[in-house]
Amino acid sequence: MEVNEAFRRIIPGHWVVLLLALILPVSVVGVMASQKPASYVSSARIQASSTPPGSDTEADSVLNRVKGIATSTSIVTRALSKVKGPTRSPTQVAASEVDVSRLGSSAVFDLSVTDTDPVLAQALTKELTKTVVDFLNQSGIQHADALITDLQNRQQQAISKRQETAATLGVTKAPVVVADLTAQLGTLDQEITDLSTSLRQLQLSDATATTAALISDASPAKLVAPHMSTDLALALVAGLVVGLMISTLLEVVRPRVADAHAFARELGTPMLGPLLGNGRGTTESQDLDSVVPREVLVAVGGAALRAAVGTLVMTGSVSPERMLRIVAGLERQLNPVNVTAGRNTDDRPPLNGDRSTATRAPVRQGSVKVRQGSVKVLAPSPVLAPAPAHPRLDVVQLADLEEEPTTGPFGLVVVAGTLTPYSDLRRVRDLVAATGWPVIGVLAHHRTRGDRRA
Known about the structure:
The chain has about 450 residues and is α/β, with parallel strands linked by helices.
């Protein structure tokens, strides 16, 4: 199967499914967007540290820390408790209404809060930024205080131990013990010196350390622009993907043949040509030539002659009325009437559909006949000789095969349209396998609502 055939089977063959798959998501998104209340956003700018991050990784680490603090439930609850207004769920606010973005690779961040109430959005942004800044400052101070306290305790323990060692050394007379205590005093002195240096450095850095700060307070809440075009585009793409998947599954469950050419290729038989006309007229009002074109007649006759068949059995997914018209058209034009000479040449019907095919007999010389003194000249008269007769081809539809008189071997002619069910192809194959009839070829037609198997 070619790619274009698969395209015709899926896209035009299931256009209703694809259309619904495109319309429904877009409609749902449009309805939801129209019913969604307007949202307002307020933002404030804070500085987590005046020391710029050394790399993007460090900047991302600071961003994750600030965002984790701002979106924690306890921090949001603390900020909501200071705001007067409509009640909001801390979990929902932290999950979907609070956002933190970084300015480049710096330690400066924009904290924003979105809410349907512009006053509440601004007030909550103001309180939340203050809470975040206070938490950042308190956590740094608490960590520094705890570290200083720990160093001071270790220094005091080292000093106490040195005093005990020095007192023991003053009363000891043994040379070995004196040497060991002297070494311990050197170690303790070095430890006390290191702890004192660390304490001075930590106290100095704590005194000069930069803490989190509020750069700009919460701005007045602004209306959030709806992303209607983006949402509709995403819905359209999602609907198209789902529609293609459903159409493909339907085509797998109920396969069809793309057109008459594909039908003929599956059967391994030639394509005889298309049938014209829409099949809506009656047998009397519709010109049979508009149903069966001349080139199709040539193809059908040549294929029948090559297969040496005397009866064409018509079958296919066509309405019975249109099949009767096709059969009548083929029967009439494949078996023209041969005529002989008449009294008036202009009144004679054409031979094989064309007067030029008639042959004239040699003209006899005129004769003179005398009757009672008058002379009458007999003018020469042309005589039409019959053209060689072609073998007769009976045409009958499969449903009337037992009722119509037929002659000669049978040959099958299939009438197929676009998107013919694959079951029709299997039916023709089973018929050929059961009867042994050769398939003369396939005729193409445009399907209508009334078409069915004939």
